Fold:
Amino acid sequence: MSISKITLYIPVIFYFLVCPVNLFGQETQTIPKIPTGAERKFVLTVENDLLSLKAHGASLRGILAEIKHKMGIEVAGEIPAEDTITAEFHHLLLEQALYRLSPNYGYQMKTDEGQQRIARIFVLPKRTEPAGPRPELPVTQTVTSSPTPVLQEPERYPEADVQQEEKSAPERPQSFKFEFDPSASMGK
Structure:
């Protein structure tokens, strides 16, 4: 009983055609395609890499998708669909325009090697709650108020007295010194 190779490959090919692609993994979330018609509540123009925007209650996600489309820049990040903005600015650089879009997000920009032009924008939500309560430091000593001490110049000793003190000071022992003579151990 021999089974041909084709009959073995048919179930494998059928499995890959029927099996959904997202079971194998998914790319990082990217900004969706540009909304159309009534969903669009903004006008974005790009001239010589300068952005102008007039938006009233427009989706931040939609504006970033439009920037991606018009400037050919990859935009990645998680922005809720309900985040809307109202803003108007004219002829701003991309970096300035992004920071004017929303104070709730931080933007990290990356350029490709050897190029000056921005290639990717990562949208990061800014932290809204504080990092946590400050730790309480234990009080180890209580300070009482006392008059400020007056600094006085130290007494000057004659040089002879200083030299006598140096001579009378006990000598410190030498640090450990290791000596090894290999000729003594070889039996010369």
In short: Residues 9 and 129 are 56 Å apart (CA to CA). The two ends are 87 Å apart (CA to CA). The helical segments are 5-18, 60-71, 94-101, 159-168, 182-185.
